[in-house]
Amino acid sequence: MIIRKREFFIGLVLLASFLVVLAVLLSPVMNGKTVIAYADDLFNQLTKGSTYYIPGMVKKAKSFEGQEFQVTVRGRDAQETSRMAGLFTSAGLAVQLSGQSLSVSGDLGKAAARALADADAEFKNQGAQVKERYGLESREVIYYWWGLFDALEKSFKLQGRATEMSFASAVKTKALEPAYNFEGIEAARVADKAGITAFMLVFYVIYTVWYGFAMLFIFEGLGITASAHGEKQEA
Q1: CA nearest neighbour of 118 among 188, 58, 69
Q2: At a CB cut-off of 8 Å and minimum separation 6, what does 45 contact?
Q3: Which of 79, 100, 114, 197 is the most buried (most CB within 10 A)?
Q4: 37: enclosing H helix or E strand
Q5: What is the band of 188 on the pLDDT scale with cuts at 50, 70, 90?
């Protein structure tokens, strides 16, 4: 039963207009994309732009040149193990193959520099360069580098080499993972997209409140209110 007609119909108008706007948001009105897809792409670009730590990691890698490592990496099958062996050998590392296990050794700083160069190319959507170097798909290369540095991180932890462990972890999380996860996305800075970013955030807040007021007025029109203790009451 409608108790307060004015509040009820205000709520209906607000809800109807909310749904009209939602229909627009779900329509391909942004160069063939929905507004929601456009906003998702925008925030992915901004997120990618905020994760570009590779130049700093390249500088840091130089301090680890001359530090030798030896670690075992295991492939998921014989084919993957063979591809990993080819990649690491091409990168100048010593590799001994035994079944699905690889014993990899070399210079930590130089290995990191090669991994970071590949990550940088992948991050900038220049995966063709990586494929040309090794004859492997760029994301596959980044995945294999990640496997090596994951193994190094665990090995350094067991050896109590905290500095090297932290560095191996940083190569994984600050370079290889962003390059892999954001493949195909153009990086953007918030400063370059300040206007549209601010608009999207303000609109999101207003749109959320819009729905809240619509439901509030509808419930009031139906005589449903809340007590001071949060208990629903009917008028």
Answers
A1: 58
A2: 185, 186, 187, 188, 193
A3: 114
A4: helix 35-49
A5: confident
